[in-house]
Design goal:
With 69 residues, the chain is α+β, with helices and mostly antiparallel strands. It has a domain at 21-68. It has 2 helices and 2 strands; from the N terminus they run E-E-H-H. The longest helix has 27 residues, at 42-68. The protein is flat, with a radius of gyration of 16 Å. The mean pLDDT is 84.
């Protein structure tokens, strides 16, 4: 699954950017791990790590489906 976005640069130019949803999920996983590292509460920390794991698992599944055709 891919996503296409349209961005406008500071100079006013428009450009299209295409990225795979799996890449987005991996970026989210990184953010969740950063939040987990900063969390003081053990329960909150665990929840963020679990969210990161789910994002990684779904991203891997998407990539596997894309690779298989």
């Amino acid at each position: 699954m891919s996503k296409i976005t349209l961005e406008q640069t500071e100079s006013g130019e428009c450009r299209f950017q295409m990225f795979h949803y799996s890449d987005y999920l991996r970026e989210q996983a990184v953010k969740y791990r950063e939040l987990a590292a900063a969390a003081d509460d053990a329960l909150v920390k665990r929840e963020f790590f679990e969210l990161a794991d789910v994002c990684e698992q779904v991203a891997n599944d998407i990539d596997d489906l894309r690779a298989s055709g």
